[in-house]
Sequence to fold (867 residues):
Amino acid sequence: MELFTNQILAGIATGAIYACMALAVVMIYQAIDHLNFAQGEMAMFSTFISWQLMQWGIPYWWAFLLTLALSFVGGIAIERLLFKPLAKAPILTNVAGFIALFAIINSVAGLIWDFTIKQYPTPFGSHPFLGSQLISTHQAGMIGVTVLLLVLLYFFFQFTRMGLAMRAAASLPESARLVGINTSWMIALGWGMAAAIGSIAGILIAPVVFLEPNMMGGVLIYGFAAAVLGGLTSPFGAVIGGFLVGIFENLAGTYIPGVGNELKLPIALALIITVLVVKPAGLFGRPIVKRV
Amino acid sequence: MTAMLNIRDLKAYYGQVQALHGLEFALNEGSVTTLLGANGAGKTTTLRAICNMVRSTGAIEFDGAPLSGRSTENIVRLGIAHVPQGRGTFTTLTVEENLQLGAITRRDKAGVVSDIERMYNHFPVLKERHTQQAGTLSGGEQQMLAVARALMLRPRLMLLDEPSFGLAPLIVRDLFKILGKINREDKVTILVVEQNAQLALELADKAYVIETGRIVMSGSAAEIANNEDVRKSYLGY
Amino acid sequence: MSAIQEVVTEAPAVEAVPKRAMTLGYGTSLAMLALLIVAPMFVKNFIIFQLTMLLIYALAVLALNILTGGSGQFSLGQSAFYAVGAYTSAILMEHAGVNYALTLPVAGVICFAFGFLFGQPALRLSGVYLALATFALATAMPQLLKLGVFEYWTGGVQGLVVTKPDAPFGLPMSQDMWLYYFTLAVSIAIYIFSVNLLKSRSGRAFMAIRDNEIAASAMGIDVALYKTLAFGVSAGITGVAGGLGAIAVQFVAPDSYTITLAINLFLGMVVGGVGWLPGSIVGSAFIIFVPNIAEGISKGLSGAVFGVLLFLVIFLVPHGARQVAIVTQQLIGKLKKN
Fold:
């Protein structure tokens, strides 16, 4: 029994990574109604930028803020330059665009910073958290930052004008235009915010998985899975989903025989899909009624 | 007196299909005009063309300035509010959020707050339900919400697309009474598209009848209402 | 948790390609065929091998076109079916001495069953959810193939070496050339089968489901049956392609069949034009040759160049090669008038 609880706690700790990524995924989803496969790479690139800034002597928190701002602008730029022209193209063509973006960012990052693994600092230290062997201070910090992000996002969407406008644009674009909202810019903003959140995710994750161009591959998939599990329309669900995915992953690794590291991913995904077959809109998502 | 809204040779297209074939009409400030006609005649298309929601050619001028080339949201910001067919309520947002959205382009916070109060005075049922999700409101209530949301813009011109659709007659009567009040007291020019010709003609000053994308009849509302031939041929009663 | 349900009257995620437009005219088809028959006689063996792979991937893209462009189901998992087909052929040939040609129908049937079975739980999923599910399948497959319990059959991480067949009856052609013509014959057969499938009642059912599933079901179409059938057929064809691939490449190994393959097949479908069967070969050409071109342009940035080229393609022709074909047709029509 104690092993079980320990695995749950450890799962929550690793799940914080997925929760943070999932927030970025949900952010993009509510802006453009699909998943952006290049989001992990964008987060990775942002993390490299922050690393580079620190290499140039800029202190951690300044590098953090600067990266946040650059990522926000970068996300908007990518949307305006690469995806606004595809706005009228079929969805699958847009998906091909995401894949192309993935290839470009991954390759450029590899060229600039090469594929050797680098250490990445954490502002939280990596000692046991409150003496616990299972959660380090860094992991506790991750959980804290993720929850803080969630609260900030909640306030943004519920209590600010821009947040209301974004919600309206995501919900019913035509009606949003009819109240004067520039829905095209709302999409750009969504991208910017998703890129910023992604950069935070990358910065938090890098100390754990180490910084290299391929660091986000698995994390992104788990982030998708977490967002889908939680319900793609719910940031709260995304965070809960993230923790649950972390727990699934740990339990699968511990209790299912023959499951080494490689099979953890498909098994976690399989579990999530099982949930979806039962609850197609995810745990906290709004059930979608389709009309003919 | 120059008309507030001037439309000349308006042609509109859905893909390859032409829906409007050279419409011409004008609205004077402060008037209530109704656009009548059967299903598919092009009434909705006309409203959509004004807001650039459908591909069109021709001249549309608001206060003398051309609307062509402007995006929908920029046309709205000029002071044209459009209550679309089906109401277009943000069903997942609350009643009050819907009203706030109507005013989202306005800078005067105090004005917005007092306008929301005014809407609650016009439509007391909205005040009752102001924290409820808009999707839980009945059809009539959602229609009132849609009109209120449009008014939150403090529009100079309000376009309404079949506001009576799917509503019980008594509710429609109430709604049209309020529309009349808004026109007189808040000085909002109204262009209302309707299939329910009788009520629309009671409210309006001027009427146009559209058939297959062309205006076939125009006149004062009283003239059209009293013309039995017109009523029988075009309006079905 | 709100009680409000989102009501969605949405456009189909996969744009409808009208039935008539899903194939080429007879003239163009015959020209293509002639080109394909004659091509290997003028080039070296390695190019012939590449042409064989061109046909093989075209088959896999074709299968995906049937599934996504035909029945509207999104799949990022085709590499799994390709792998199963490849290993089926390899195991039958190397462990049981079965003739290479006979392994293909077996691969096809096994993969059909596999796809049909996978289609069952997939019934409840669509869009991004189905994408995730098929993605899971694709990522699981290489790991499953490496599992120790199967190692005797699969050869574990090393995989299996496959013997390339000689031309039969002592025909005077190289192994590569023979394999090319064999693959061409199989491809033509599958292409004709696919075209007829999409023109048939089943094909119409697929497309009705793609365009509006609820309406299709209201019309009495057995949505569950046709959706799983589409998965089965698509998987079966992909399996045959996998088998051919195993023979052409002369070995099978788990890491040859990763998610990268599935993503490439998806890109091939988009570049060729979703739902346009003839485009499959264009898509296949893209995924075989463009990465090489990219690497030729810049070794260090090959991924970036590939991405840029891909963007160029989708900016210029968002609807893929089909768009080029339609524009060409219109131009020819205009020229004919003058």
